[in-house]
């Protein structure tokens, strides 16, 4: 009966861990065999009989009867006199099966059995969780905010699985409260010390691509293909789409009437500005579309260096560059080309790097980051705007402006 009682005790884990009875029994057999190996040196001559329906377990040790005084291995052999105590008519050479009670293993072994079982069940659960989420990598998943830390948000799904969303995988404008439901993609799943570490991201371009699949039926059905997605999370994104069906307007279908279809995606991403453009193999046209809403006058492409010189009217330059240089940066990422902006009628302009004797390189780079690489492009903005866009000190910006103005004052 003590076997049955212990099995029932072990079976408590079945409900707690949502593990099926058959799997539990398989783990039990493995745990018991390990215990038998430790006590008897081998488990090869033991039969373990498990009844999953009743939760019962029996252990039988099989030994060969040998003459008295000739027992060499007490685990595999039994003397004739000992065998006949079990059954009087046993003879030399016959097999004897004797039931092993749990109490025979010793109290310490029984405690070790329980700990080993707990460990094996956790290992089984963790392996299953790892496999389950590994298959979900790159898919959208929803979980509930459980705990908010400085560097990460800890989420729990409906089954109690822990999911981590680090700060750098969140959209800057994200604000969470405990109990909020959060959508993101399963970005990565790793086993660390037999524990699955599941990372969710809302900042990945793949999240935006998957939102298009969820929210736009033509993308879900494969009638519209999302060729590439680039984004600055919470600020701006560009999505290149096309369709093999000429009757479908891919951009119109994605945006919807008055933006009705894309509105939900924009809201999900914290009002991220999303440009949807038609993909094309025509590189000139693709770069032109990527710089939208700016209107390009002409393009000169160098395929070896992967650079494109784009000529724009002065009033289009700020549109091409965008706030904080986001538009031109994303256009470059989308097309794979470094884009240089040139202004019409700027023949007399001077590139900023020509002032390297008077302006430090790191300051020039700060202006170049937002697409301002010539003297006149800087002078087109007032000082307050330049300070805001570059994060440079007022004194530094004033110094640069004075130097640039002197260039044109003759």
TrEMBL record:
Entry keyword Transcription = yes
Name where it's found: Cytoplasm
Q: Which GO terms describe its biological process?
A: DNA-templated transcription termination; transcription antitermination
Instruction: Output the InterPro entries linked to this UniProt entry.
Output: KH_dom (IPR004087), KH_dom-like_a/b (IPR015946), KH_NusA_2nd (IPR058582), KH_sf_prok-type (IPR009019), NA-bd_OB-fold (IPR012340), NusA_N_sf (IPR036555), TF_NusA (IPR010213), TF_NusA_bacterial (IPR030842)
Keywords assigned: Cytoplasm, RNA-binding, Transcription, Transcription antitermination, Transcription regulation, Transcription termination
**UniProt-listed SMART domains:** KH
* Molecular functions per Gene Ontology: DNA-binding transcription factor activity; RNA binding
Sequence ranges assigned to domain K Homology in this UniProt record: 233-306, 307-409
Q: Which CDD domains match?
A: KH-II_NusA_rpt1, KH-II_NusA_rpt2
Record GO cellular component, one term: cytosol
| Superkingdom of the organism of origin | Bacteria
Q: How does it assemble?
A: Monomer. Binds directly to the core enzyme of the DNA-dependent RNA polymerase and to nascent RNA.
By sequence similarity, the record places it as follows:
Belongs to the NusA family.
What is this protein's function per UniProt?
Answer: Participates in both transcription termination and antitermination.
* Stored HAMAP family: NusA_B (MF_00945_B)
Q: Which named protein is this? A: Transcription termination/antitermination protein NusA
Organism this protein belongs to:
Marixanthomonas ophiurae
Please state the gene responsible for encoding this protein: nusA
């Amino acid at each position: 009966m003590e076997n049955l009682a212990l099995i029932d005790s072990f079976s408590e884990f079945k409900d707690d861990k949502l593990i099926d009875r058959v799997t539990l029994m398989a783990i039990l057999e493995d745990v018991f065999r390990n215990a038998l190996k430790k006590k008897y040196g081998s488990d090869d001559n033991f039969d373990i009989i498990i009844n999953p329906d009743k939760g019962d377990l029996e252990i039988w040790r099989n030994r060969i009867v040998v003459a008295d005084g000739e027992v060499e291995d007490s685990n595999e052999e039994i003397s004739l006199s000992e065998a006949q105590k079990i059954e009087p008519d046993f003879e030399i050479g016959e097999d004897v099966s004797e039931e092993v009670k749990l109490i025979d293993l010793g109290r310490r072994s029984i405690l070790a059995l329980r700990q080993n079982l707990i460990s094996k069940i956790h290992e089984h659960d963790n392996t299953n969780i790892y496999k389950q989420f590994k298959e979900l990598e790159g898919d959208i998943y929803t979980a509930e905010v459980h705990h908010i830390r400085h560097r990460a948000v800890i989420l729990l799904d409906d089954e109690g699985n822990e999911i981590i969303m680090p700060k750098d995988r969140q959209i800057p404008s994200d604000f969470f409260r405990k109990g909020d439901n959060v959508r993101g993609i399963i970005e990565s799943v790793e086993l660390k010390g037999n524990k699955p570490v599941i990372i969710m991201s809302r900042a990945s371009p793949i999240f935006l691509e998957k939102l298009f699949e969820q929210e736009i039926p033509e993308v879900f059905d494969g009638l519209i293909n999302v060729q590439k997605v680039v984004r600055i999370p919470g600020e701006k994104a560009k999505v290149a789409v096309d369709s093999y069906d000429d009757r479908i307007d891919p951009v119109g279908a994605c945006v919807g009437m008055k933006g009705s279809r894309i509105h939900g995606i924009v809201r999900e991403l914290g009002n991220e500005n999303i440009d949807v453009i038609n993909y094309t193999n025509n590189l000139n046209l693709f770069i032109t579309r990527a710089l939208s809403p700016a209107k390009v006058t002409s393009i000169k492409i160098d395929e070896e260096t992967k650079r494109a010189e784009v000529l724009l009217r002065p009033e289009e330059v700020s549109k091409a560059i965008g706030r904080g240089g986001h538009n031109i940066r994303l256009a470059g990422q989308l097309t794979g080309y470094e884009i240089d902006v040139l202004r019409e009628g700027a023949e007399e302009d001077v590139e900023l790097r020509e002032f390297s004797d008077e302006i430090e390189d790191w300051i020039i780079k700060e202006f170049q980051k937002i697409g301002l690489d010539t003297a006149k492009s800087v002078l087109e903005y007032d000082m307050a705007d330049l300070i805001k866009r570059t994060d440079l000190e007022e004194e530094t910006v004033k110094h640069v402006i004075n130097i640039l103005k002197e260039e044109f004052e003759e």
